[in-house]
Design brief:
Layout (H helix, E strand, L loop, with lengths): L2 H15 L5 E10 L11 E2 L1 E14 L4 E6 L2 E2 L3 E2 L13 H12 L5 E8 L9 H16 L6 H16 L6 H8 L4 E6 L5 E5 L7 E7 L11 H14 L19 H22 L6 H15 L5 H12 L4 E4 L7 E7 L3 H14 L6 E4 L7 E2 L2
Parallel strand pairs: 4-7
Antiparallel strand pairs: 1-3, 1-14, 2-8, 3-7, 4-5, 4-6, 8-9, 10-12, 10-13, 11-12
Helix pairs in contact: 2-3, 2-4, 3-4, 3-5, 4-5, 7-8, 9-10
The structure holds alpha-D-galactopyranose (GLA).
């Protein structure tokens, strides 16, 4: 655990409220190695937690009020009983949505929450889910309520879907809750089956370079819901519970075929990646990452110019493979890069961005970190 982050959160709480918090909980952002737009199709994903986290320092209240402070922003107090989907609409919707869901689970007391963190916002690294997961653990912890990670993941999804209004799947919160250091999490979303697969790129002279395009995306407004609805329609037309159950797009209306083709091929790429990792054949993962990007760009159509330039420039500079991650329409890409040329790859990506007149991207190497929990 990063004790500086949790100390900072505790100190911020002390400064604001004049007393120490009862506890500090934290949750990481995530990178998804492969398996994009498969989660809400009952498919496979392969994320790992990044070292950047959100911390929530918290103390209970008795009056059914939730107070939220983050950095210099202190939000107006919210009465839990008055919370309704769609309001508030700013960053406080995420913790408020979680409190709204947990109130339905009998957690009604209220709380003071002070939030700190270093997961970049709007960068496709799941900053909002890390905030929601840390909030959920804090509210459950204050109420001394035990809950399984699968219940917490479902409650967080309910907050996202029903309160915030983003029809997202289970990838991000499960990654934040269940990932462990030095592993990728192989999750079968349909069955909930999880396997921690060792992931040590450094031992193979490789690094996962994250390229944050700094193009902000909103899954509430983007074409995310439309893609999801298309997949659900395809499953209905073929009489199966989810696209997970299809092995071809053939026979479907033309407009749905590329969506289904992406999901079918992406699930296969996840399985292949897991097999390669188990066999220590890390270098062979590169082409799968690039194929995933092409499929998201051409079939699923959720990429954008900045993500395409990032992936292409990284490959041109010698990355073994590169792809956009997360919902798309902005956010981040990852590249699997030989460590000895990482600086060259970064330079080439930065130059390509400058050539295209894009704002400078933010880049860092990500190593699998610990999942969410109580820090103190
Ligand atoms: C976002 C959503 C996830 C998942 C990804 C795409 O991150 O929150 O549920 O659908 O997009 O793989």
């Amino acid at each position: 655990m990063n004790s500086t982050g949790s100390n900072n959160a505790a100190e911020a709480f002390q400064r604001l409220h004049g007393v120490a918090p009862t506890g500090v909980w934290s949750a990481p952002g995530r990178v998804n190695l492969i398996g994009e737009h498969t989660d809400y199709n009952d498919g496979f994903v392969l994320p790992f937690a990044i070292p950047q986290r959100t911390w929530v320092a918290a103390a209970p209240r008795e009056d059914g009020v939730l107070t939220l402070a983050s950095g210099s922003a202190t939000a107006p107090p919210l009465r839990l009983a008055d919370l309704e989907p769609g309001s508030p609409r700013d960053w406080t919707a995420y913790p408020a949505g979680v409190a709204w869901v947990l109130r339905q689970q009998g957690i009604t007391g209220g709380a003071d929450l002070v939030i700190t963190g270093d997961v970049p916002h709007g960068s496709g690294l799941s900053s909002s889910h890390s905030l929601e997961v840390a909030t959920a653990l804090a509210l459950l912890g204050l109420a001394e309520r035990e809950a399984s990670t699968s219940d917490v993941a479902k409650w967080v999804q309910q907050a996202e879907n029903d309160f915030v209004g983003a029809p997202t799947g289970l990838l991000d919160q499960t990654a934040s809750l269940c990932c462990t250091e030095a592993h990728v999490l192989f999750l079968d979303v349909r069955t909930g089956r999880q396997e921690q697969v060792p992931f040590d790129a450094a031992r193979h002279g490789l690094e996962v370079l994250v390229i944050d395009t700094r193009v902000s995306h909103s899954l509430v407004e983007s074409g995310y819901a439309e893609r999801r609805a298309g997949c659900e329609e395809a499953a209905r037309l073929r009489n199966v519970p989810a696209v997970r159950d299809l092995d071809t797009e053939a026979g479907l209306p033309e407009r749905l075929q590329p969506l289904v083709r992406h999901v079918v091929t992406e699930n296969a790429r996840v399985l292949k990646t897991v097999e390669l990792l188990r066999q220590d054949r890390y270098e062979e993962i590169g082409p799968l990452l690039s194929a995933s990007h092409a499929s998201l760009r051409d079939d699923y159509r959720v990429s954008c110019a900045e993500l395409d330039v990032a992936a292409q420039a990284a490959e041109d500079a010698g990355a073994l493979g590169a792809r956009m991650i997360g919902g798309g329409f902005g956010g981040s890409a990852i590249a699997l890069v030989p460590a000895r040329i990482r600086a060259d790859v970064e330079r080439c990506v930065a130059e390509a961005f400058a050539r295209h007149g894009f704002a400078a991207p933010r880049m860092f190497t990500a190593v699998p970190a610990a999942g969410a929990g109580r820090d103190r």
